[in-house]
Amino acid sequence: xxxxxxxxxxxxSENATTLHTLQGGYLVxxxxxxLGCFESLPxxxxxxxxxxxxxKLIIPGLVDLHTHAPxxxxxxxxxxxxxxxxxxxxxxxxxxxxxxxxxxxxNYQAVVRNFxxxxxxxxxxxxxxHTEATLLLMDQMEQSGLVSYVGRVNMDRNAPDSLREADxxxxxxATREWLVAAAGRYRRTYPILTPRFVPCCTNALMNGIxxxxxxxxxxxxxxxxxxxxxxxxxKELNPGCRHNADVFVNAGLLGGAATIMAHCVWCxxxxxxxxxxSGAFIAHxxxxxxxxxSGIAPIRRYMREGLNVGLASDVxxxxxxxxxxxxxxxxxxxxxxxxxxxxxxxxLTFAEAFYLATIGxxxxxxxxxxxxxxxEFDALVLDDxxxxxxxTVTLAERLExxxxxxxxxxxAQKYVxxxxxxxxxxx
Length: 427
Ligand SMILES: [Zn+2]
Known about the structure:
37% helix, seven-stranded mixed beta sheet, binds zinc ion, alpha/beta
């Protein structure tokens, strides 16, 4: 790790509504952390190496709060189905194959290569219900240079025999063994407890996961209120519960630990209150929610009420891993919600969606998603030459166009905790 300076056109979120921009500015990194941005280089750093990215955009790395690595193989398939049918037709049969490490290895290599090439510097991942393959994925994520949380999935009911764990105790014992095997093995890859979703987890399993959470003090991720059918099913399986969040609260799983709940499309007022009180992060998955007809999450309402929200790809419900695509989709679906569902909730602006993609999700990892002094130094250098226009555009407008028009080929350099992932630039 080293200390250096980047020169270029810098953009990051000042707050949820405002972008801070600095043309031809200097961004200083010291041992993996940002020391801030400057119009001219302070004398203190005159002798530090300067990487000159003049006329390129420099922004914080993007954060994917929710994706499924074993589902990478069938991205773009099955989008004619709703969630529960889609799980049975595509997801469960595919995930069952990860019992076989010879199958898992090249497929996990492919997804990790994709993550490295793209704009996301932090990823929170569901693996499968297989200890060995999950450790293999964690090994590969560690080597990638990205920072991630990876979860070995728990599921002891309502799944095919090829994937379902025999009972709660079998699932919990395997989880303990996985945590022991992962302990002390990585410096940027962290375990996260992963009960798949309430229909796949008995109360005994949920209670046991809460106990493990207490013992190991690690975060938890799951899916919540994704579709109306799922919510009805949860009420049948857990008579007396008012909503999904009740089941987690009753198990002791919402409140103590850092938690990510994916989707949260259909949370009512009470469930929203429970999520807010717990400090849970909502992983907003706009592309997946559209693909499998789940609905449009009320992100404007969650932001207004002060909940933690980040963006997510949810591959393979979503087909694109890039959080640039999630930014564009979050804005698009918010317009449909405003037009078709609730005219009281204004659409998200580009600046708000960019905030969710950086600081919003980054907060789950700590001080991540900004160039303010003290933030971890995750940065992207973006070459937007291909999108130059005869119009006069501001720096913020260049970033907006990049988010909508670019692909991975336009990323010139990528830093995670101050380490460059691509071949070094010349000073
Ligand atoms: Zn998911």
